[in-house]
């Protein structure tokens, strides 16, 4: 049996297996003050262009300040913005790009395992504003002739998992300073494609700055 066939068989088994529901649901996680401010900014934009009346805006802003969970905040903007533009993203599905581009980013809750499939497509995963549910996140790859790009903040270690068949991995991140940094582990397989990990570029220094 070829290694390619075993990889494909294992990937299918992982997809049909029951999902791990032992951890908290993303919508049940506690909201921060920064999360509330994100939602209030979206509500204020909706007031400015007429999507909300002044009364509706006031009611939703008060509800945002009272909201204790991410799910409670997400409900306040659900009818105002498309899913990809929401200030709080409740993303809990596998990521799949079949000859197309899929983008995942913003303020979203990252589960301990992210299944990612790319057949001739591109997957862009932005973790800069994300909430990690676990100190170690496994990106379970099934990539054929596709590209997966991870944009991670400084201080995060991106590394292939033991036994992973990631034949093309370009790591452009900066080494973490912490002895125990958050870890993004690349598992699964990549054939005829590539995985790229990047950190955001540091701001340019002015000519006269020291």
From TrEMBL:
<dbReference type="Pfam" id="PF08044">
    <property type="entry name" value="DUF1707"/>
</dbReference>
<protein>
    <recommendedName>
        <fullName>DUF1707 domain-containing protein</fullName>
    </recommendedName>
</protein>
<feature type="domain" description="DUF1707">
    <location>
        <begin position="29"/>
        <end position="80"/>
    </location>
</feature>
<dbReference type="InterPro" id="IPR012551">
    <property type="entry name" value="DUF1707_SHOCT-like"/>
</dbReference>
């Amino acid at each position: 049996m070829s290694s390619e066939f075993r990889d494909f068989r294992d990937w299918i088994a992982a997809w049909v297996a029951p999902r791990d529901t032992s951890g908290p649901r993303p919508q049940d996680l506690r909201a921060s003050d920064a999360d509330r401010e994100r939602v209030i900014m979206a509500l204020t934009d909706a007031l400015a262009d007429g999507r909300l009346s002044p009364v509706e805006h006031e009611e939703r802003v008060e509800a945002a300040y009272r909201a204790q969970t991410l799910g409670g905040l997400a409900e306040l903007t659900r009818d105002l913005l498309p899913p990809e533009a929401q200030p709080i993203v409740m993303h809990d599905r596998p990521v799949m790009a079949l000859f197309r581009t899929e983008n995942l980013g913003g303020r979203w809750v990252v589960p301990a395992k992210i299944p990612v499939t790319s057949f001739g497509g591109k997957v862009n995963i932005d973790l800069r504003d994300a909430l990690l549910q676990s100190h170690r996140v496994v990106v379970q790859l099934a990539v054929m002739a596709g590209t997966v790009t991870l944009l991670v903040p400084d201080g995060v270690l991106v590394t292939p998992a033991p036994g992973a068949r990631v034949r093309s991995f370009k790591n452009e991140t900066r080494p973490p300073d912490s002895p125990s940094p958050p870890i993004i582990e690349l598992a699964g397989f990549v054939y005829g494609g590539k995985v790229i990990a990047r950190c955001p570029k540091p701001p340019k220094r002015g000519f006269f700055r020291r």
